[in-house]
TrEMBL record:
SUPFAM superfamilies: E set domains (SSF81296), Voltage-gated potassium channels (SSF81324)
Keyword Hydrolase on entry: no
Descriptive protein name: ATP-sensitive inward rectifier potassium channel 8-like
Gene Ontology CC: one annotated term: monoatomic ion channel complex
UniProt topology in membrane: Multi-pass membrane protein
Organism the protein comes from: Sinocyclocheilus grahami
């Protein structure tokens, strides 16, 4: 969801004087449109090329069939049964031909191996009846031909194996775990703001279903291109990021939308990045939510990512959980909404070295807030005074004038009408 316009007045914007006095030459460079490693929908933006050992995919046929697209799976499903029916139809035709059932000049007393199998078409129909156990009754096997009995047993066994494998693949494909992940949502934007006097990177996650995700765990990774001291270029360097709730053996209780917080400390890859340097970097923050579906017991995983354009510095998520008539209510229309708050624009390292920056920022924010309140109160007073003056003018304009009448004696008699 797109964030709404901030409800905090523009007076909360910070002047350059609040920035750290440590002057560092900003690094400006033309930022190339970097391809995302993980799309917002969770799909991996990765292409495999020049795979020489294609036969490895056939060693795990079930996984290969499940990973295929639906149109290929349905074609393979249909062709497998059709080919097996045609293959055994040929076998039944050969059995009938070897026994002489297809000879038009056979003796009337000789019994056929399979009754009413006089052509390849009838052999094909009999093959379908045997494998799917329909049994219309027009064609049937007799005890005169042991070869036909053996072929009947073989086709039943092979047909059961084909049905089990293909139906199992269809079931696994329809019950894939990523279907459950469609109702696990992430905020469109990530924010960096101050929480408990520390700079924090925060996102919001939620579950649209009432059935819960058991043992849900959120993992964060920063992916960026790095170069080692030896000169080795790592195009996709994955760095694990510790979250506030990621304690060993502890999982989140995803009953209502939660804000996942990462404290930017010395071990964080964001420790040396200020607001300006963050916008110039090409890093990508990947968020992975894993858990077990309560209703099916299948493990699921939901993924998303945030590039630097999707990270808002100096914003905070608005509250969306309220208590209404004894029930907690979640307003998902405000799921991704943020408001602007007082946040230093320096890096977390500079904030640790000079804590006074945070104090100055909060003081400036408080002064700006007080000035804004004074302006609002003065504007309200002026508006109220204008309204009262306008009402007085209107009342004076509508007042009834006095009229003087003369009595017969000539004395004045005042009357108001």
């Amino acid at each position: 969801m797109l964030p709404r316009k901030s409800i905090i007045p523009e007076e909360f914007a910070f002047s350059p004087a609040l920035v750290s006095p440590i002057h560092r030459k900003p690094v400006f460079r033309d930022r190339v449109n970097k391809a995302r490693f993980i799309a917002k929908s969770g799909a991996c933006n990765l292409s495999h090329k020049n795979i020489r050992e294609q036969g490895r995919f056939l060693q795990d046929v079930v996984t290969t069939l499940v990973d295929l697209k639906w149109r290929f799976t349905l074609v393979i499903f249909s062709m497998t049964f059709l080919c097996s029916w045609l293959l055994f139809a040929m076998f039944w035709w050969l059995v009938a031909f070897a026994h002489g059932d297809l000879d038009p000049n056979r003796k009337p007393g000789v019994q056929q191996c399979v009754t009413n199998v006089n052509s390849f078409t009838s052999a094909f129909l009999f093959s379908i009846e045997v494998q799917v156990t329909i049994g219309f009754g027009g064609r049937m096997i007799t005890e005169q031909c042991p070869t036909a009995i053996t072929l009947l047993i073989l086709q039943n066994i092979i047909g059961l194996i084909i049905s089990a494998v293909m139906l199992g693949c269809i079931f696994m494909k329809t019950a894939q775990s990523h279907r459950r992940a469609e109702t696990l949502i992430f905020s469109r934007q990530a924010v960096i703001t101050v929480r408990n006097n520390r700079l924090c990177f925060m996102i919001r996650v939620g579950d649209l279903r009432k059935s819960m995700i058991i043992n849900a765990v959120v993992c964060l990774q920063v992916v960026r291109k790095t170069t080692t001291p030896e000169g080795e270029v790592i195009p996709i360097h994955q760095i694990d990021v510790q979250t506030e709730s990621a304690v060993a053996g502890n999982s989140i209780f995803l009953l209502a939308p939660l804000i996942i917080c990462h404290v930017i400390d010395k071990d964080s890859p964001l420790y040396d990045l200020s607001e300006m340097e963050l916008q110039c970097s090409d890093l990508e923050v990947i968020v992975i939510l894993e858990g077990v579906v309560e209703t099916t017991g299948i493990s699921t995983q939901a993924r998303t990512s945030y590039v630097t354009e999707e990270i808002q510095w100096g914003h905070r998520f608005v509250p969306i959980v309220t208590e209404e008539e004894g029930v907690y209510s979640v307003d998902y229309s405000k799921f991704g909404n943020t408001v602007k708050v007082a946040t230093p624009r320096c890096s977390a390292r500079e904030l640790d070295e000079k804590p006074s920056i945070l104090i100055q920022t909060l003081q400036k924010s408080e002064l700006s807030h007080q000035n804004s309140l004074r302006k609002r109160n003065s504007m309200r007073r002026n508006n109220s005074m204008r309204k009262s003056n306008s009402m007085r003018r209107n009342n004076s304009a509508l007042a009834v004038p006095k009229v003087q009448f003369l009595t017969p004696e000539g004395g004045p008699n005042l009357a108001v009408t």
